[in-house]
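#data-curation
PF: Archiving a pair of folding outputs for the training set. Convention for this channel: one message per protein, sequence first, structure tokens after, nothing in between. First:
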Amino acid sequence: MRYVALAGACVFAGAGHADELESPTLRKIRDTGTIVIGVREATVPFSYMAGGEHATGYSYEITQRIVDNVRETLKLPELRVRELVVTPQNRITLVQNGTIDLECSTTTHTRERENDVAFSNSIFEYGVRMLVKRGSPVKDFGDLAGRTVVTTAGTSEERLLRRWNMERAMNMRIVVAKMERSGEALALYRRWFESPIPPAGVNLDYPMSEPMKALFAHPNDHPLD
């Protein structure tokens, strides 16, 4: 089955200029003495929380190298690093509005996004494939015409499918997954119900119930009465 190759890269707040010190982002970092990086909660093994205070993962390690370079470039040995959890839905906006200075997880470099943010060299290349039932007549992307397709909200895959749907009049019914199925909501649950929470570091120690597990496995908006 054919697949579409995509390249992931780190995202920066603005392209800046040829002279690094002319970059508005670097000026902001220098003036505040702090760099804010966007991390993900459950994007294993790229950027995810593993129970500690900081994120970890392949992309996260690359982020640390970038931070070290910024520290050296700005001659700020005491540069503070703050991490902010982002999602596929808000990561580009948070880079654009300056809430975070750098996001490095699994963001795909696209021409559309180039209008809003700047990208590093690509750090990972991957393919978009389809998962279908054995024996299905769907063999290639063109065979999805008139069918229901599920993908993850806020991703390049969703944008690609929607573009094809419009440009090629494929009449696909595109369904985007909720946080529950992606693992993101589970990570949030563990963070707020099974881990120490501010301000006093109290752990509610409230394991997920069977009904909650069933809800995350089959998201719905059914009323309770």
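PF: Second:
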Amino acid sequence: MQENAIQDIVIVGGGTAGWMTAAALAELLPRGLRIRLVESDQIGTIGVGEATIPHIRTFNHALGIDEDEFLRATQGTFKLGIEFANWKQVGESYIHGFGKIGHDQALAKFYQYWLRMYLAGKAPDLRHFSINTMAPHANKFMRGAADMPNSPLGDIAYAFHFDAGMYARYLRGYSEKRGVTRTEGKIKRVAVRDADGFVDFLELENGERIRGDLYIDCSGMAALLIGRALRTPFEDWGHWLPCDTALAVPCASTKPLLPYTRSSAHGAGWQWRIPLQHRIGNGHVFSSGFMSVDEASAILLQNLDGEALGEPRAISFRPGKRARGWNRNVVAVGLSGGFLEPLESTSIHLIQSAITRLIHFFPTRAFDQADIDAYNAQTDYEYERIRDFIILHYKQTERTDTPFWNYCRNMEVPETLRRKMDLFRTHGRLFREGEELFTEVSWLQVMHGQGLRPHGYHPVVDQRSEEEIGSLLSNVANVIRKCVEVMPTHEEFIAAHCAAPAP
């Protein structure tokens, strides 16, 4: 071990962020590190029903977590994508599905061939060419079949819905088995060294002082270390993302058990629907500048599929991020580092990516600035590209029915997003830049679903005749349809593999 190696890690805050961090560091860092997590049962967490993206499977796999066991422990279900209702216009919907669309060809992406025919009025909508957009409407689900490598059934991308509080408890047990120490208590004071501005120690209300080499701030929006103690500036993105309040409430389950998240746009925001095995998680994200809490609450309760299991709980937030996610000897993970509304289910992914990035740049007690700068640059890039993707949903709308949607449709957007939209408008061109999270297929589905139409298609597509392209599209759509027909329902698959014990 290096002479100045990190020996003591202190995680401030539990919840999903804290226990994901504890579990990953305990499992993936060298043995001998002392990891201590400080949390208080008196301080609640944001945790509601959570939706994820497929990257969570990589995280769980790295920790050696059995998928069926995890789903039983968290009342989890499967997710093939997100349905967006009323975003382009009231009464219209589309699905942003995970995974592939069609089969890319040697000279161009599959969607370019589809685009030529679609612009000519000779192709059905995009959803017909992906198993992840066709299976959800039939309420079908299965894991990819390894023995069918050349079939859409052999490669099905999926994520999960689960109870975030249950996931945190599951990871707490996992972490404590691997030596993580949990300390119950409220933090009274965070002492900062005068000499270098580093966090020196935490003082609890009972007088105990806790020292570490590296501190990880998982204290949520309170941002006790990164914000209050180190006064790291916060970049507010509210002018691009005007929603600033969420109301959350669970409701009773209804049939069928849908294998996708639903996002339904309302007059000044949108409502989420996350189906779990034992209930449905619901919430209304809205802009308090365009709608009152009482009105938002009434809309939420009127649009539940089952009986409400409580009163709506209000959560206020500021969209944006810290100017530096890593400042001195403090790394922010989760909401302490930034907040992007959960429209594309990126909240847990941002926790996961921060943990992964910290492991990649894991420091010594020298805390080399080059490492910190590289970490922060990558964090900034990730947040900004996800921000742009979320803004796209608001900007690219045809709704004119409320002041909120008029504001969103007419607002200026970041230059990075404007360039992407302009490029797509010409010949449907999409390029994934660097290590940004969302692929060309994701951008395509949202741009098309929201009504952004290219003027043309890639000229290389004209190498093939209309008849050849029509045959290609017809074959892909037929294969997808037949695959969906043989899949079990979502409910049948869960019953056979990962049903949670009856309460």
